[in-house]
Amino acid sequence: MSRLIVISNRVSAGGGAAGGLAVALSAGLRENGGIWFGWSGERIDEFTGQINFRIEDGVRTATVDLEDQDIEEYYNGFANRTLWPLFHYRIDLAEYERSFAGGYRRANERFADTVLPLIEPEDHVWVQDYHMLPLGSELRARGVTNRIGFFLHIPWPPRRLLVTLPEVRELVETLFAYDLIGFHTREWLDSFADFVVHELGGAISDDDVATWNGQRLKLLVCPAGIDAAEFKALSESETARRTCIRVRESAVGRALIVGVDRLDYSKGLEERFQGYERFLSEHPEERKEVVLLQIAPPSRGAVESYQQIRTRLEGLAGKINGAHAALDWVPIRYVNQAYGRDVLAGVYRASRIGLVTPLRDGMNLVAKEYVAAQDPSDPGVLILSRFAGAAEEMTEAVLVNPHSAEEISDAIRTALAMPLAERISRWERLMEKVQQQDVMWWLHRFTAALSAVELHGERANPLPLIESDEGHEVA
Ligand code: GDG
Q1: Considering 242, 243, 367, 447, which has the largest number of Cβ atoms within 10 A of its Cβ?
Q2: Distance (Å, rounded) from C-alpha 55 to C-alpha 33?
Q3: What is the CATH number of the domain that holds 443?
Q4: 469 is a domain residue
Q5: Among this protein's residues, is 190 annotated catalytic?
Q6: Residue 366: CB within 6 Å of ligand 1?
Q7: Are 357 and 333 in contact (CB under 8 A)?
Q8: Residue 465: inside a domain
Q9: Which atom of ligand 1 is nearest to the CA of 267?
């Protein structure tokens, strides 16, 4: 079995705080041996490339510090001010600065230089996400002939939006350095294929192999899952049980609607609040029967658009509460804090409705966690945005257009009125998929596809064939 070299912006192999994907990547590293490499999250005055090795939960990690300019231009700049909004269809928020693109290239060169000595000849390299799109090509430029795969955790946007990025052509061309690219959904894969055909003049075969400029790149639909068994167990833990009771008691008999999202404009929080307000206005008779609990831990506070969304949401929650609250009832409880996963599991379980309405999302794991945490005999209803990657699989959820306050309002009404038998049958079908296509399924699907990629040209026969005197071929 080949060792695995996982490369991602941040490394989080350790402890119970790590999310499902981190758990899967750590499991992959434990199964195959290898190293998880990335940025330490720390800043240093001047980049040195010095690697800090550790063993975290049986996984060998290697991290490197970045200097201020890299963090500003690469992480806060090109990754989070340019690519994140653009790939979530928000060209109105995307900032196109040459210094960002330059810093992004420089940071990726630095990552490549630093990780290079750690890669052994038979290793399989797996690069994660939009922070590191050109890393594969930087590694090839340094002579790496190993199998290299890439997984995109966010959507691949439509070509007519993507072409607004000045450096787009060079950036997409670098992706042909990979042997395999994984996307959460067929929609994101098709958008990528469309760009290859119509902007690069490449071709796509029936079995999803992209060809361009004599290079081949296998494309794979590989939806990420969660550790369903672990999440189910968490929801039955003592902490979850106590949280569930506490949260239900605080709702004093009202139906609890819950949202859990990183505070990010892609998650559709403003539209969600507006949809909920619509419900309150349209159904005054049900008004005091519900309460919305929105948990939204802040993220990327150094980026201005994140400060703005925070301010706007606080204003909106205040306005809705001001307009509708009664002496004994506040319609929205809005919490800007992160909780333990066992607490979240208890909150999911306490609720009657899980409201997951991103405007655009690569997958959305909260939707899957919500399902895994439900009580099988009395499950809550998942309301899910059509524009989350998860909607491609989770068709038994109540699907909504998150831009439409009316649809969100109608969906809340439908979910509240849904008979127990229907709630159970929808939940059972959802749970089956969440359990079947879990995070280990995702890990193995990707790593198996990377091992199976057909190599061509020199990389297929790295040792030259020499004609012997007898006319036989020897390696
Ligand atoms: C990207 C893509 C794709 C949230 N609040 C707390 C907390 N969380 C956890 C959730 C969940 C995770 O964060 C969020 O995952 P999502 O998938 O919903 O979204 P992104 O962070 O945007 O992730 C996304 C994902 O990558 C994987 O490929 O699905 O589309 O955008 O696990 O539970 N965790 C804790 N406390 C909190 O308060 N402990």
Answers
A1: 367
A2: 12
A3: 3.40.50.2000
A4: no
A5: no
A6: yes
A7: no
A8: no
A9: 22
